[in-house]
Amino acid sequence: MSNTDLATREPQVFGAVESKSPGRLAWERFRRDRVAVIASFVVLFFVCIALLAPLVCKALGINPLTLDRKALNDYGLPNGPFGAISRKHLLGVEPGTGRDILARLIYGARVSLLVGFVSTLLTTVIGVVLGIVAGYRRGKIDSIISRFTDLTLAFPSLLLIIALTRPFTQRLESFGVPEGNPARLTYIVLVLSLFGWVYVARIVRGQTLALREREFVEAARASGAGHWHMVFKELLPNIWAPIIVIVSLSLPGYVAVESTLSFLGVGLLPPDASWGVMLGDSVKYYRADPAYLFVPGVALIVLVLAFNVMGDGLRDALDPKSDRQQLG
Amino acid sequence: MKRRIIGLLGLALSASLIASACGSDSGSSTDTAVSNDTVATPGTDAGTPTTGGTIHILSQLEQITHLDPQRNYTGSDLAFVGSTMQRALTSYAYAPGSDGSKLVADLATDTGTPTEGGKVWSFTLRDGATYEDGSAVTCADIAYGVSRVFATDIIVDGPTYAITYLDIPKDADDNSEYPGPYTAKADQQALFDKAVACSEDGKTITFTLSRVVSDFNYTTTLLAFSPVPKAKDTGEKYDMAPVSSGPYKIKSYEPGKSLVLVRNENWSKASDPIRNAYADSFVYEFALDPAVIDERLIADAGDDQYAVSDGGLQPENLQTVFDDERFKDRRQDDYDPYVSFTAFNAKTVSCVEVRRAVYLGLDREALRTAGGGPYTGDFADGFIKPALAYDYAPNKMPEGLNADGTPNVEAAKAALAEAKTKCPDVYAKATGEGLKFFHPDTPTWQKNISIWIESLKAVGIVIKPTAVEPSKYYPTVQSDETDYDIARGAWGPDWPNASTMIPELFLTTGGFNLTRNGDDPAYKQFETDTKAALAELDRSAQGTKWKALNQFLVDQLWSLPGTFLKAQDLWGSKVGNAYRWSSSGSFLFGELYVKQ
After folding, report:
1. Between A and B, how many CB-CB pairs are < 8 A?
2. How far is residue B246 from each of residues A37, A320, B125, B219, B592, measured CA to CA in Å?
3. Is B131:B245 a contact under the CB 8 Å cutoff?
4. To probe the interface with A, which of B369, B444, B482 has the most A CB atoms within 10 Å?
5. What is the average pLDDT score of chain A?
6. How close A159 gets to chain B, by Cα (Å)?
7. How many C-beta atoms lie closer than 10 Å to residue B231's C-beta?
8. Which residues of B176-188 are buried (b: 16+ CB within 10 A; e: fewer)?
9. Which of A73, A162, A285 lies closest to B316 in CB terms?
10. 3-state class (DSSP) for residue B136
11. Residue A75 in contact with residue A86, Cβ under 8 Å?
12. Is the ipTM of this complex over 0.95?
């Protein structure tokens, strides 16, 4: 697959009908993919809710921290069917404390998406820079970066993340990161980025290797362009498409990993909510209060699915050769 | 005695830490020993106990905290090891209900003879007691076992009453001159041999104490007074393979997996008046998820019909079990001996008004609900449970404290306003940077800490939580280097006397003092009064003194009384003799039998 063709061959393939920019073409293809469009709306919805969490909760009259003893029975379990769903608590309450699940879900989305976006941003930046440098310079630099990539890939990252949580958050706190959740979230983002960039770097390096032999790159080199110009004006603009695809597919991965870590107890600390914390807590109640398990679980599935479908749609749009409709 | 904290890497191993377990020691057992050889009667089950079969014990622990008798100090472990493998000089009767706190003889033929008003105690040893290799249990072995307690660098975590009580000189730092059997020089060993002496015929062991201890024969129920053959002692490693003197011995032991006990053929019923040893073998299954344990017991399938758990039911399953009559013959809900509390660091929270404001403003009702509502237990009015009848009287609680556990925000704010003028430093800390609360990182506590934060926010007090890995929680808060402002704990009496509660929790020399109260202006008086109570010989006069001290502690609030805890159990349908043994608050594991 070589979606770098997109930019260079455009006049021959599509130009006969009407002159359209590659971005415009991609957008039109994406718009035709109805499932991907719906998925993007779902993603947009979650992002908006997360951004506007305080306003949304205020409008609904709920708060993620307020205790509600009246919604619980004497066993400390929700006082009613389906986790005590009521007009006051639209998705029911948390067993033990009576905190509103919807409010915790909305605030939890903030954490999940924040970790997802920041980790993706960092991995992409690191991965693209190292990947391009390795692919463009080749030789010694390439082998150093590539061996380093292999080494990072060989690490049992999840185990390390879990084992190092406590010492490293303490270290971060001693460096002045605010204690508690800011330090925990910083740690999670840092380690996810530390282990995540390799996937981006490998793909970008491959793309760059293919690209640097192309005529237009040769031409630029022959006309005496510097490294800076080569990388940023010639190579980078032509590998945006695969980068966008990687980004859209790795973001839901990071959202899920944050949930996993919180589920395993090395994520967010109480009283703040994240989806992983909610899932981890709710598993205990699968017998006594199944609704509690259902809500964060479904939310996580919907968000991750929406991101993935959107990512697929983007790939199809940006890389018409792999378009399932055309192949199909 | 301690209650253990269970947890693995912050995973959901929720020891219901607000709840604790150990047994409501009935106050009916008195300072005068019941001297008889009563054979315990079978438990609450109808039908005759039958021998044979295998009992399974499901546990979330990685291993038994300590199999070494001298290091064993948690209620459930004492019951398990004591009833299967380690005999001590005396024991509590193997019976349900309040009979279970009666003192009976075990390796001794009587429950001890005090002379010099209780300063010298002698026990006549029983004939015929043997170890698993068939050799006889001797007086020297018991003395050797006790001497191991003094090796405080190797024999850690166990009760240290032997060091406190025995008449062996102490140096300036209050450390014993005797360093234990491993490193003692001849003159040091002589100090010990003088305090713990065997008669010429080896039939009598005599303990000389540094002061009168009128209930020393209760102290000797602790397995720290179990025999250890010197030739077999492997020091620290003895914890993994102790020599059995009871009806069972270790067949295999793999921490993290299982401990299998089989019959000790060299144990004879004739030499042991209290143990019945019905089952042929025991399988202790470790490292199980508590949710899985509950699920297996609820399902009651296959070998789980012969299973009990050593950890009680999780709060989330209480409704399932207690609302369903299917379980009515195999569940129980009662008090255990533990009192939960929240300790302040009296050095940093040196202002009683702030401590009172926290107490008044805390939503104790929400905390109780999170632990299972009424199943958690009753709001404590001090540090002595009503079951300690000699020492308990209702306390006068701080004015404004709501009896139903709900917060009294007005009263709390008033107390805080008082603090603002009286101790501006502590006030500023409590309302500004916040009080550091070290809590175990378990699901239960993740909820509890949220309740603390949220309910005290309404008063204006800031709580800053620090989650500590559960297995490291007690070592962390017991270390002087940890700078917490608030910590939590639960404690139960080692025998029915507040002398094992108040001094342990609040004297600076106590085994579980989390309050760092040594520099508090009120401490000197407290210390004097406590020492007077310890020295009091008349049991009812001593009780009066404990009552006054209990009230004093509620006024000082170095520690906030939490809950007089209850515990709930479910067991397999074919397990007999499943009752809560009042002295440990757990099952009396060795007496469980398989129903035919």
Report:
1. 99
2. 73, 79, 15, 20, 15
3. yes
4. B369
5. 84
6. 11
7. 9
8. bebbbbeebeeeb
9. A285
10. strand
11. no
12. no
Give the pLDDT band (50/70/90) at residue B290. confident
**Is the Cβ of B447 closer than 8 Å to some Cβ of chain A?**
yes
Q: Enter the DSSP assignment of B99.
A: G
B352-361 helix and B443-457 helix, angle to the nearest 10 degrees: 110
* pLDDT, position A234: 83
- Assess A119–B contact: CB distance below 8 Å, yes or no: no
What residue in B sits closest to A63 (Cα-Cα)? Answer: B454
Q: What whole-number distance in Å separates Cα of residue A145 and Cα of residue B303?
A: 56
**Residues 6+ positions from A155 with CB-CB distance below 8 Å:** A195
Q: Is A289 at the interface with chain B, CB within 8 A?
A: yes
Q: Where is B263: in which H helix or E strand?
A: strand B258-263
Cα–Cα distance, B93 to B273 (Å, whole number): 10
Among left, alpha and beta (phi > 0; psi -120 to 50; other), residue B96 is beta
Helix axes B424-431, B409-422, angle to 10 degrees: 130
* Tokens linked to B98: 């309040």
Compute how many other C-beta atoms are within 10 angstroms of the C-beta atom of residue B197: 16
CB A145, CB A198: distance < 8 Å: no
Instruction: Check: CB of residue B259 under 8 Å from CB of residue B286.
Output: yes
pLDDT of residue B3: 64
Is the preceding peptide bond at A271 cis, omega within 30 degrees of 0? yes
* Cβ–Cβ < 8 Å for B354, B427: yes
CB B316 within 8 A of CB A285: yes
Residue B168's H or E segment, with its range, is: none
β-strands B331-344, B486-491 pairing: antiparallel
Sign of the CA dihedral A268, A269, A270, A276?
Answer: positive
User: What whole-number distance in Å separates Cα of residue A147 and Cα of residue B486?
Assistant: 49
CB distance from A77 to chain B under 8 Å? yes
Q: Compute the distance between CA of residue B112 and CA of residue B205 in angstroms, rounded to an integer.
A: 10
Chain A residues inside the 8 Å CB shell of B11 = 264-265
Spell out the residues 6+ positions from residue B187 whose beta carbon is closer than 8 angstroms to its own.
none
Pick the closest to residue B269 from B247, B294, B254 (CA basis): B247
- Are the beta carbons of A249 and A198 closer than 8 angstroms? no
Contact between residue B7 and residue B441 where contact means Cβ atoms under 8 Å apart? yes
Residue of B18, B292, B319, B324 for testing the chain A interface, max A β-carbons within 10 Å:
B319
Pairing label, strands B331-344, B559-570: antiparallel
Nearest to A75 among B319, B446, B449 (CB): B319
For residue B594, what are the β-bridge partners? B575
- CA dist., res. B399 & res. B379, Å (int): 16
Sole residue written with tokens 């009287």: B393
CA–CA distance, B161 with B153 (Å, rounded to integer): 16
pLDDT averaged over chain B? 88
Q: Which of A97, A264, A269 sits opposite B465 (nearest CB)?
A: A269
Closest to B11 (Cβ–Cβ): which among A75, A99, A264?
Answer: A264
Three-state SS at A99: coil
Asked if residue B588 has pLDDT above 50, the reply is yes
User: Tell me, what amino acid is at B13?
Assistant: L
CB B13 within 8 A of CB B60: yes
Query: Is residue B6 within 8 angstroms of chain A, CB to CB?
Result: no
Give this prediction's pTM. 0.80
Count, residues in chain B: 596
User: Which of A65, A97, A264 is opposite residue B370, by nearest beta carbon?
Assistant: A97
pLDDT digits (tens, 9 = 90+) for A63-108: 999 898 888 988 889 988 888 888 889 899 999 899 999 999 999 9
Summarised one tens digit per residue, pLDDT across range A255-287 is 888 888 887 777 787 788 888 888 888 888 888
The helix (run of H) or strand (run of E) holding residue B115 is: strand B113-115
